[in-house]
Write a structure and sequence with these properties.
The structure is a single chain. The chain has one helix spanning about 60-70, and strands at about 25, 40, 45-50, 50-55. The protein is built from 1 helix and 4 strands. It has about 90 residues and is α+β, with helices and mostly antiparallel strands.
Length: about 90
């Protein structure tokens, strides 16, 4: 598989020691032409995948569906789920 893009906060990976952590949900979202949705965060000058923080009363999937509606304006179908803890 060919690496298309590495996404970092800044120019290289940073340590998260000392950061407050919150639960988030993100996804690789493909359209009907197999293009991947990638958003650009202008304030911090970096690309990101759709998704975001989990609000009170939401599970990871509910949060992801809400964030995709807000950020890319569409409903998503789940092709699988993987939870990763950093």
């Amino acid at each position: 598989m060919k690496l298309l893009k590495e996404i970092y906060f800044g120019e290289k990976p940073v340590s998260t020691d000392g950061w407050d952590h919150k639960q988030t949900s993100r996804a690789v979202v493909f359209d009907n032409e197999n293009k991947i949705a990638i958003l650009y965060v202008e304030a911090f000058d970096f690309p990101k995948l759709p998704g975001g923080g989990v609000e009170e009363g939401e599970d990871l999937e509910q949060a992801l569906r809400r964030e995709c509606r807000e950020e890319i304006g569409c409903e998503i179908e789940s092709g699988g789920y993987q939870s990763t803890k950093f």
